[in-house]
From TrEMBL:
Superkingdom: Bacteria
Protein name: Cell division protein ZapE
InterPro entries found in the cross-reference section: ATPase_AFG1-like (IPR005654), P-loop_NTPase (IPR027417)
PANTHER family: AFG1-LIKE ATPASE, ATPASE N2B
Keywords attached to this entry: Cell cycle, Cell division
GO CC terms: cytoplasm
Cell division in keyword set: yes
A GO biological process held by the record: cell division
GO molecular function: ATP binding; ATP hydrolysis activity
Length: 347
């Protein structure tokens, strides 16, 4: 097995990446799959009118910058923007895969001047890596800050972001945020928005709350399954096939990778996977430690954003969050990670 692994030529556990404040700021852009995202390329599901309503509101928000123009063609080319938004922030509350990140990226592309786009975890990682004062200094003066997947799980992180957004908004920075609501959580439809308003009451009046419903466009929700190969030998064989095709493949033991993630600040995970096309994990086992599980969620987010394939053996990755984790306070994080693992775990 050692010889075969060396043939692939890379292990993530051998990497100890570093990243500077400038480099961290440069990573705060929409994920590569949303490089070309625009309002014209968003396709609302006619079975869910809230998607068209969300599109209209995001167009109106962009129009208030005075930079959003009609293309004169396409599906929405004849639609006139509504009156400019009256609040400096907009918040999209909805389920997985309904286009929230697409709309947020489109809004970011439409924003003038210096702007930043990142997940809630990335911003808290930025503060953790730089310190609060330096993070504020870095972000101050931006025209627009986009926060994807706003989290309410950790009161400390939530209030940290509340304070940060409040300081930025007071200087004229405009804000937009999204949050996930599980598609099968029938009674929780407005949970995220209600908690968001309560937790950031100091700046709540700066946000328009926009509800967006629908079905996961990947059609791979928690009822789907991540592909699991029969054993480690099958993973290595598949890894070699990808490597022979010119792709950069990293092969690691799942247990070793999880342990290694604990030695690296989450802000550096993006560098850990830099240049990798395929991640091969052998002997996946259920995670029983909450801290390990949350680190793995942050890692999965970076892998998914980079559109990296995952090959794996052992426990199917959609079943990696063991015990009562899926029913606890971090349920939404784990559900999002499961959706992304199902989309990423392929052959």
């Amino acid at each position: 097995m050692t010889g075969e692994r060396q043939a692939v030529g890379l292990r993530l556990v051998d990497r100890t990446p570093t990243i500077s404040a400038t480099e961290l700021a440069q990573t705060l852009v929409p994920p590569p799959q949303f490089d070309q995202a625009s309002f014209d390329t968003y396709r609302p599901d006619p079975d869910h009118p809230s998607q068209q309503e969300a599109l209209d509101k995001m167009r109106a928000f962009a129009a208030s910058w005075g930079v959003q123009k009609s293309s004169g063609g396409g599906l929405f080319g004849r639609r006139k923007p509504k009156a400019p938004a009256t609040k400096p922030g907009v918040y999209l509350d909805g389920g997985f895969g309904v286009g929230k990140t697409h709309l947020l990226a489109a809004l970011s592309h439409a924003a003038p001047g210096r702007k930043y786009f990142g997940t809630f975890i990335e911003y808290t990682a930025l503060v953790g890596a730089l310190g609060y004062a330096q993070a504020v200094q870095l972000l101050t003066g931006a025209s627009f800050i986009a926060i994807d997947e706003f989290e309410l799980d950790d009161p400390g992180d939530t209030m940290l972001m509340t304070r940060l957004l409040g300081e930025l908004a007071s200087t004229g920075t405009r804000l937009a945020a999204t949050s996930n609501t599980p598609p099968n959580a029938l009674g929780e439809g407005r949970f995220a928005a209600a908690d968001f308003l309560r937790e950031i009451q100091a700046i709540a009046d700066r946000f328009d709350i926009v509800r967006i419903d629908g079905v996961d466009y990947r059609r791979r929700d928690i009822e789907g399954h991540a592909v699991s190969l029969p054993d480690a030998a099958a993973v290595l064989e598949a890894a070699e096939t990808h490597a022979a095709a010119g792709e950069t493949v990293a092969v690691d033991s799942f247990t070793d990778l999880v342990r290694h993630l604990g030695t690296i600040h989450p802000s550096r995970y993006i560098r850990l996977i830099e240049g990798v096309d395929v991640i091969a994990l052998t002997d996946v086992a259920p995670l029983t430690d909450q801290t390990d599980a949350l680190r793995f969620v942050a890692f999965v987010d970076r892998v998914y954003d980079a559109q990296i394939r995952i090959l794996a053996s052992g426990t199917p990755l959609d079943q990696v969050f063991a015990g009562d984790m899926m029913n606890g306070g971090y349920r939404k994080k784990y559900l999002r990670a499961v959706s992304r693992l199902i989309a990423s775990a392929t052959v």
